[in-house]
Amino acid sequence: MDFTAVRAEVDFSRPLQHWDGFGFNYVETAQTRDYAQSPQDYGGFSLLSEEDRRKIVDMVFGDDGLRAAILKMFLDPFHQSEPGGSYDHATTTQWMRYFAREGLKKARAGGRDLVIITTLYGPPAYMTRQGVLRGRDLDPSRKHDLVLYLVNWVRYLRETEGLPVRYVSLHNEGEDWMRWTQTGLTDRPSHDYNLFWPPEQVAEFITLVSEELSAAGLRDVGVTCGETTNWYRFDTWGYADAVADDEEARSRLALITSHGFYSGTYGRWFGEHKSAGIDKLRVLRPDLHAWVTSTSWSQMDARNIKEHHGNIYTAKVNGIIPWAGIQRPTQWVGGDPNPGSAFTVHEDGSWEVRRGYWFYKQVTRAGQPGMTVVRTSAMDSEIAVLGFASNDTPNPDAFVLVNLGRNKRVRVRIKGTRAAAFTAFRTNEDGAERYSPIGTWNIDANTLVYDAPGGTVTTFFAEGN
Description:
Layout (H helix, E strand, L loop, with lengths): L5 E13 L2 E5 L24 H12 L8 E6 L18 H16 L5 E6 L22 H18 L4 E5 L29 H17 L6 E3 L6 H6 L2 H7 L1 H6 E6 L17 H9 L5 E3 L9 H12 L5 E2 L5 E2 L15 E3 L5 E3 L1 H10 L7 E7 L4 E7 L8 E6 L4 E8 L5 E8 L7 E7 L4 E6 L3 E7 L3
Parallel strand pairs: 1-16, 2-3, 2-9, 3-4, 4-5, 5-6, 6-7, 7-8, 8-9, 10-11
Antiparallel strand pairs: 1-13, 11-12, 13-14, 14-15, 15-20, 16-19, 17-18, 17-20
Helix pairs in contact: 1-2, 3-4, 4-6, 6-8
């Protein structure tokens, strides 16, 4: 062993799981309690010129951009105001739908496609026992109303907007019963929409929504288990068990979903990258994929990519969608608790590309849909390696090397590829390199030797495989 370098390995012949891709989330209406008086566009496209909107869409979905493959769209509580009332799916979703339509066009123009998941942010006030917006408890007599609310939205997106919605998710962090007062009301305007979803309710609604989708002729749209705050809660708070123990829900579940926020400090917000809940369901349903449907941009640095590594290699997911990638800070009451992003839109109509974009691009370009996550290792906890095999897609074998520490030499043993060389791109934390090409490395005796600067993420693409 060479004790002057970190020993690492990528084996492209050892697949761990299928990869569905990295995604994006445009958040429009998230908190306002009175849309007529205080309309909200957290993504900020309403402030931008058409030229600038298209530039951002291209940077997210275009050939030279992130090539995002998954899109998350929220269903807010303002689409129906009374029982049996008409639906208004347009007013509060103008820019989110624009982003989805234009993103789909851009992806397909490049020979790729887009998979959409839509998530219930919160139901209309009349569906809650409290009878107010963001009331805690679902009124049992309104279960069918809520099912129809979800299904009608999916139909609208598919038939009116022509968007390829593939999954509908039941809730957004609905496990956290402590976000309400004892009477089930909301005491902080900074809270975004929500409804409390006990585990048994999740299992019940997987079946109810699945049945209604089929009745509506939307049999190819699957139902997920909603989105707990992190994978620790998905398992330890009883959600995986509730689905596993309900045979009908388990058989109808189309995709395992949760947020992937990480906190290694024990306490209220503790959340590790834990696969136990996913593993329980895959024992019974080996075909199930799992997605992270929101996760922090953190400090928009190399450590953030290590968080993606944890979700992929420790939680064993098949896809990742970070939290709101485009943010207009003044539109989030109290300040977004996860203020990192790919883009920021300012009130004067200007916008900027943030460091998070370039770090995220290092992984999104490497891990495209249809590839496989492969086995990697590194004998240094400040080095993380993510590997993606081509798997007969047009995408080359690729691996991503993250260095959280000081400058380090890394000796990477390469297995299972026909490539004799890898071309590299790098992003660093001081902004001097932003997915910048840094050269080509030849493979010598199945080994690539790389001097990794501290605080960098480097992506290597196989040449000629």
